[in-house]
Every structure is written in C-alpha cells, then in structure tokens.
C-alpha cells in the first residue's frame, strides 16, 4: 500500500516491508527506516493515500517545478498572447522546461524553473501567481440503499416525477480525477446504454496497457498525466488503475448494478453507483509519486473542453499545508470549471476529529464529509468461559471458537530497558518476543498509530493474534487479512483486563468477521472525517454536506502486484474501503442525477438542492452524533447527510452567482485588476465593494451562513435570496428558526409568496447576542416550508 507518515510525537524505528503503491509499479525491497513523524496512514485501514505535500520546488525558494497561473483562458486577446510569449521565453532558456500547458478554461503552464526565474515571471503583467508544484494526497454496497431508506422522510411526489433517480443520468458525464480505472470491471459495462452524448469532446488515450477498446458507452473517455517525477515512464503513463482507489471511486459514483458483489463473501449483495446511467470520463492524475498539482490543473483544463458535467476529486492537501486559493491547483481548477457550468465535488479530508482540518474549502466547491452506514463488521473476542466482547475488524483467520489461546497484556511483555508506555502500545523494540510468542496480545492505542504497524510487530514476535483497544475505530473496520486481530472499546477492555489480572492462565480466541446489518445508530460522523471551520475562510461554513464514507463496498482493480502476499490468492473484484474519498463520489453521483433531471441548473443550484434537503436525523429518529457519541454540529457534517429522495425536488434554491464569487474574492483581499485576470465573467463597471473585508463574505448567497465578530450586543444583518424551482402557481413559504441560547435570530419577512417558476425573493436575518460575549461558536438553522418542501439553511455564529 502507499503511505506517508505525518504528525509526529516521538521518534520510533519501524521495520516496514514497502508493499506500497510504488511497489505496485516497481519492485522495492524491504527496508528499515527511522521516522520521527507519523500518524495513521489510512490508505490501509481506510482510503487515505497519504502523500507529503512536497515537490521539486516546495519548502522555500529553490529550483524545481513551478505553476505559473495566468487566470482565465481566452481564445483571443492579450491574455493568450501573454501566455504564448511567456511560455516561449521559458522554452528558449531550457528546452525540456515545460511540464504542462493550460489553455482551456485556465491559462498558464507548469515548468522547471530556477527560483530566480520563478520570481521574475511572477512580476509579469497577466500573471496571477507563481508557486511550487504541490503534491496532494488521496482521501482514502449497501450505502445507496441505506441513503434511500435509512433516514429519509419521504415527501409527496408529483405524478410525473420519478423517485428512483437511478434510472436517470443517461447524458450526464462525471469526470473522475484519481488513480485511473480498471475498465474490465463489471461495474463499467455499457450493456443497453445509449450512444455517447453528442456533447462529448474528449478522447480515449492509448497506452502500453490501455487502448480505445477499453472505452465504451460507459467509460467514454480516459486520459493520463505524468507528474514531473515520472518522465515518460510508459508503465506509469496510463489510465489503467494499478492502485484501486480510482476504480472504487468511479464505481461508487456511477457503477451499474452488479448482483452478487462482496469482499471475499463479506457485505454480499448488489453493488451499484449513485448514478448508474451516467457516463464516466477518467483523468488519471495520481502516480506512485503522488497527485501533482500541475497534473490536476491539466486535467481540469482538459475536462472543461471535453464537456463533463460533474467533476469528482477524492484528494486534497493536508491541514498543515493549506494554501491561499490562487496557489491551490484544486481551488483554481474548480473555479474555472464552475465558471464553465461544471459542478465540482471534493472530499473534505481524513484528519478529523481535530477542528480546522477541512480541506477543499473554496465556496465554489461542494465539500463532503464522511459518515457511517448501518453495517458493521464484527470480529468478537471470546475469553474465560465463553464470555464475549464485541470487536470490529475484517479478518479471515480461523483459530477456533473456543478460548484456548494464552492471553497477555503487552505491558506485561515489556523488554528490559524499554518504556512501559511503548510496550503497552505495542511499539517496535519494546516487547520481549519470548513472552509474546504463541499468545494473543492486547495493545493500547494512545497515539492513534496505524494498527498495521502494531499487527506487524506482534506477528513478527510470534503472536497468534492481537486485540487493539481503540474507541476511534467504530464504524471503520481495519482489515487484517488472515491474521486474527480486532478492535474493542476501552470500556470493554476494562472487563477483559480484569479477567487477565485475576486469572493465572488467561485464555481467549478471536472470531473471524461476520456482518451486522441494520446497525443503530446510523449514520454517525466518521471519526477520521475532517472538521470545520475552514482555516482559509471561516465565513464560509465548511464542510458543506456529509455522505457515507465508512466501510464502503465498490469495484476494485484486478492488478496483481500484491498477489504474492495474499494467501487467498484470489484478487477481489470488490473491496471495502473507508475515507472521505468514499463519501465524495456518493455526492458526485447524486449531483449527476439532479443534473440529469434539471440540465439547465447551475452548479450552485445543484449544490443548494443537495444541502437544503439534507437530514440531521439518524435511524433512531435522534440527532446525528459523532462516532464517539457526542451530538454532531455543522462543523462535522455541514448541512447534514445527503437525502437521495428529497434532493431531486428542493422547492427553492440559493443560487450563488458569478458576482457573489467575484465579491468573495474582493472580500478575501484580491484587487479588481487581479480578479479581472482570474475571471472571464467580470461585467463592465464591476468594482470591489468599498471597505471589502472578510466579515462581508457572510453575505454571499450561500446555502449556509457563517457570521462572526458578534461582540457585546451589536447585531449583524445578513441577506439571502431564494429562487423558486418547484414550478408555477402561487405558493407561500413560512420561516422556522432554530436558534441557540444566547443568540436572538430574527428573519424579515417571515413569509415568502412565489407566483411563478424562477422567481427570486430575498429575506434578511439579524443576529443579536443576548450575552456580553459568545465564548464558543453556536449553531442553528433557518427553514422555509410550504408544507410540501422544507428548505433548510444551517448557520454558525461566533464572537471571535
């Protein structure tokens, strides 16, 4: 698997056999390395492909690959000439300097430059920014059935409407920017599909292991992009997915129905994507070296001219390396995609539950958090005289049902001179192998270290099994293949440790995994899901929405790079993965279904429909909670869990206009001249509002509200505008306000009467603190209803 280790607390030497994504392409021997920074690399236990945000030019001013961003592309005029002249001057100095050139929707290029050259180029007119090429990380089926039936409150549908959205999407094209695709998967069959839409302008590239016949009426296009470090390696430069992540994502968004899907017999049923009728366009931007920002921008540029409707990106930067929008390739590409009518959906990141970790937080992006579904994978611990403790993991081991295996707490196996804390956490070189051999070992997990390192350590010492004490793994089952290992809660650990300490010869066994369906409560916010507020602009409430991201079954690559390590030999056609990577394509699929129903809708209308119809209730009719049981807030799930039933008929939408986005850039600190380069839709006479400041961002017409600096008892006034999309005829909406103690929220008017489709009406909200100081951010909502449709906008208010 591919992994990068970040966020250190101590230096620990770990012997790792690099069965990484790199080794899927080339052989790499086992190696020993000392790492001083590490965190859970969830590519193995989840779906996060950890890559450091490094590049040939990152980490200060030095030579390497730089992205030269020149705003919106135009077919004619000064910007196109400036692009050509600047690029020509670079190529004259160094023939192999060019990495990518951007000419569709986006203007600019990526090139190998010296630090001095980069600085000089940044001073040219028409250049918005010059920055080092970053490398991004991947944020790594019952889920759709759960969304349809699990928590939705059904509404009356018109006789001509179709509540089963999966029959739609025939001419909608979803672009997947990821690790490629495995086209032979049954999920991508084009049986009974109509001809390719005439709007499609893309291509199906040829590669050593990929040709035009691998595309069909389902996969209608495929491109690949080598990063700066890949050169012309034909093994890498292919749309074929050697990792699995891209295949999993694509099938979640738009895979057809495949009966009999399972992961080695687990989670069996019919696999299907959110929009089975939609077409897929593949843009392979990630290689063994990471997902280069320069490749991401190239894919955005191609996707804009190819004619996609939705773009889905399950990747982003780590929280420690967030950049301003004009130096963030995803934010840049998404801006120009949205300006060209494309809805862009991105994962929020896997660095939760810490606050201010949400990535992809630009207002023109639909940012997706992750939740659990009502399916759990049980691997129970049996001890003493057949007492049972519930465990959660995926393992295919069979060491018997009876508790006959010796049991030991890792702390009791501490090696002489080792730290006791290291030992009980099963850290390398901390335990005595003689005490471990032949036993089941109980390991703590104080520092949230990846469980695979603990598994490898105890297994190498001769243990026959392991029990991990970890409250954070609920709903996110780690996979241990054929090694008997499971996770239990700290509460249950008290019981088994009491037994161990009171018994001369404690014994236990670990049972192979079984599936528990209709689990309650569900959904809950996944522990790993990144949280708000945004560290770039807190006046936009992020994430926007939540969707299933834990234990998701979807199609998988048939690449056999790891076959030698798999005792079962058989490569699975489907795999269970977790991460906001998995949540993102759920929303992409839903967006495609909405776009199919309403082809003329703007990206902001699609976003609003998804957000304002979301659910905040679980399958026990209680409020959504975080994975450890606390009541969740909008910083956890945005507007709530997506509703596949209601999103197709939102009644009203908040349309965020081009002017809203231009004003956002003003409020964020950009001047008029820079904005005119960035956007091709700046109207004549446009000027940044006077006294532009960040607090004014709260006034852009977004489907949620974030308002701050509510100090003393001074009020803040916010305006929102709603558009009727429910059809003609008179209809009146009344407002319901859910406000927290300490804050008065008033809305005027309290009724909105619409008389025709497309009509827009505005209302004003006044936030007034009733206490001298708001010590924490407070949450509530404003809902408009006409007894058929409920249009809800969440808000957050704070004093700082």
From TrEMBL:
It comes from the Eukaryota. Residues 169-619 form the Peptidase S8/S53 domain. Its main location: secreted. Keywords: Apoplast, Glycoprotein, Hydrolase, Protease, Secreted, Serine protease, Signal. It is found in: Secreted, Extracellular space, Apoplast. The active site is at residues 178, 245, 581. Pfam families: fn3_6, Inhibitor_I9, PA, Peptidase_S8. Belongs to the peptidase S8 family. This is PROPROTEIN CONVERTASE SUBTILISIN/KEXIN. It comes from Salix koriyanagi.
